[in-house]
Amino acid sequence: MGKQLYYQRFRQAQKTTIKYLRLLFNDHFVIFLLIAFGAGVLGYREVIQRANYQFLWHSDWTRLLIAVLLCFGLQFGQLITYFKPADRLYLLGNDHMVSRDYLQQAVTVSFAFAILWQLVAISFILPILFKMQLLTTVKLASLSLFLFSYKYSLLLLAREKLLMKPRLFINGFVQGLLRTIVPIVIIWLILVIGDGGLIIFSLVWVICVVMLAMFLHVNDKQSQQLAIDWLTSIAQAQVHERRILHFYATFADVPTQTYQVKRRKYLDYFLNRLTKRRDMMYSLYLLRLARGTELLSLILRLTIVGGLLIAALSTAPKWVILSIAGLMLYLVAFQLLPLFRETEQKKWTQIMPIAIQSRQRAFRQLNRHLMIMVGGVFVLSAISQGWLMMSYILGVLVIIGVALDRIYLPKQLKMKRKL
Amino acid sequence: MGLKVDNLSGGYAGNQVLKNVSFTIEDGCIVALIGLNGAGKSTTINHIIGELHPQSGQITLNQVNIVEAPTAFKSQIAYIPEQPILYDELTLAEHLHLLLAAHGQDNDKSWDRVSRLLNMFRLQDKQHWLPIHFSKGMRQKVMLVSAFMLEAPLLIIDEPFLGLDTLAQRDVVTLIREQAQLGHSVLMTTHLLASAAKFVDQFVVLNNGQVDFVGTPSALADKYQLSVANLDDYFDLVRKETGA
């Protein structure tokens, strides 16, 4: 039953993924993907080919950078359990089935996804390895073997954390080390050690991983003694689901996105000042934006990514930089829209005697303020490219900002209200 | 036999809620856990259903220890939470089939019993509905059918009457009594003391995470010089006593 249930949920999740991907590829994502991928490839090719970056290929720091990049890749591909809140009730008394079959399938499927991520990470650093003349078969095989097996071990440990009494207890500090410093050091060693030493190292490593896998294997007898920590397990699954939804929500209007709140007391000082003598609805939108977990971080991420791209693509054609600035500003305005819809759906909003026009006006005002801040960051990001480039970006952002405020938003707000 | 909670201390991470809680529920007994908000009722239940790990003490059900054999322990439990929990994607019938399978019960053999419960709660024609179409009361009824159909050795009900109409409340009492007659133990929480006193064998009173009183409804009424019919005034007396 455990395996079947997992695969049933896995299939259901794939259907949902396809649905979201369809939404994504019908939306801004294609434009973003084209521009971001194009810009990324352009920048990467520039670094690899340009003569003034030659010093990188002889530096020890580059080895460390590769280790950090691959360690970053290891952070992708979490344990996917598909647990649901109702499981704590309907699977109560089935801990043996869940720990023996269901979670084993979860590890297998998660590992398959994790391998894809690791392959992407390895492909990314291949040109650098080639430039550094480190691209030998043994090194590449050892590196791949280490990344795959290390990820598998991390998944086994993640599964262990879902048990009421983990057989291998690892505190938060050690977990942090295992996710960061330890893999960085080992990858660095793999890059430094010669081919002969690497073969011995890989053999020892494989033995260690096999021993760990055997120790954490759940057999029939053990499964009877293992209890699932349902609260932790369900919370873990929900965090994972939310992360995926965040990704889709960056580029498309995802209907089932959950809304969560964080107090963020440290923002109180600014919020008090910003909401003073402001329209009541403006204050409401601002407070909801500041305390919602999704939107604020999403907009911050977009601003940071946009700023970094503008700063990094100093030698790219002007149109690429201006397109990125414009697209990012548009995405910020687009991302803010659910805030209006969710606020409209609240009973409190509905019973408040405030005309819809006033509510829309307040929302547009907040959006304007946000666009000015984000636009300011984008303009400043181009500081190394000179005043002319900064004024080009400013000009484009003003035109797009006005179009968004006067045409796009009023139209969208009317539609959102009807939803 | 039955449920034995022995010197249980526990709570959530870094927060001890229960302090040396002890009580037993014999087979065929109905016990109500009572106390003001924050007294530790839900925490006690969360420990018994294995969602929290005891900091100290033992919980055994028919001599099966929850820490040593969690699966064997939990497979003897049917649980109705205070707030209905349902899968958005499953119909009513699919929920019931899933739960029967999870408890290793034969679907065909059990279905007569399930049909009787569905009829009793007027859900027979709603078997193919998704939870999104259920009212609050109907969701609670699905929880009740799910738990009663299992005929588990220990039935745990957190606030059994919440959101139910009077007919359904009466049916729940009948079903609880039937469970007890079958020799199964029942643990419930409630704030409606006078109503519960009519069918409960014992009250376990919790106050600040400690057991204040264990005894029959009439013993509790006597202790506070109340009649059983006026037991709902008990909390007023406690509030006056503690100044809460």
Structural domain tally of chain B:
1
N to C succession of SSEs of chain A:
HHHHHHHHHHHHHHHHHH
Largest sheet of chain A: none
How many helices of chain B? The count is 9
Shape of chain A: flat
Gross morphology of chain B is: globular
| Helical coverage of chain B, percent range | 25-40%
Mean pLDDT across the residues of chain A is 87
If you compute it from the alpha carbons, what radius of gyration of chain A comes out, rounded to the nearest whole angstrom? Answer: 25 Å
**Rg of chain B (C-alpha, Å):** 18 Å
Task: Return the CATH topology of chain B.
Answer: Rossmann fold
Mean pLDDT of chain B: 90
* Assigned CATH architecture of chain B: 3-Layer(aba) Sandwich
Question: Could you name the ranges of chain A where pLDDT drops below 50 across 5 or more consecutive residues?
Answer: none
How would you spell out the order of helices and strands of chain B?
EEEHEEHEHHHEHEHEEHH
Q: What would you call the structural class of chain B?
A: alpha/beta
Distance between the termini of chain A: 40 Å
Total E-strand runs of chain B: 10
Instruction: Tell me the count of domains of chain A.
Output: 2
Keywords (chain B): ATP-binding, Nucleotide-binding, Transport
GO molecular function, one term (chain B): ATP binding
Protein name (chain B): ABC transporter ATP-binding protein
Domain ABC transporter (chain B): 3-233
Question: In brief, what are we looking at here?
Answer:
The complex is a heterodimer of chains A (419) and B (244). Chain A has 419 residues and is an all-alpha fold.
Q: What is this structure's SSE topology?
A:
The complex is a heterodimer of chains A (419) and B (244).
Chain A: H1 2-25, H2 29-49, H3 60-74, H4 87-90, H5 95-131, H6 137-160, H7 172-179, H8 181-192, H9 195-215, H10 220-223, H11 230-251, H12 268-275, H13 280-291, H14 295-312, H15 318-345, H16 347-351, H17 356-381, H18 386-418
Chain B: E1 3-12, E2 15-25, E3 30-34, H1 41-48, E4 56-61, E5 64-65, H2 70-74, E6 77-80, H3 92-102, H4 107-120, H5 136-148, E7 154-158, H6 166-181, E8 185-189, H7 193-197, E9 202-207, E10 210-215, H8 217-223, H9 234-242
Parallel strand pairs in B: 3-8, 3-9, 6-7, 7-8
Antiparallel strand pairs in B: 1-2, 1-4, 4-5, 9-10
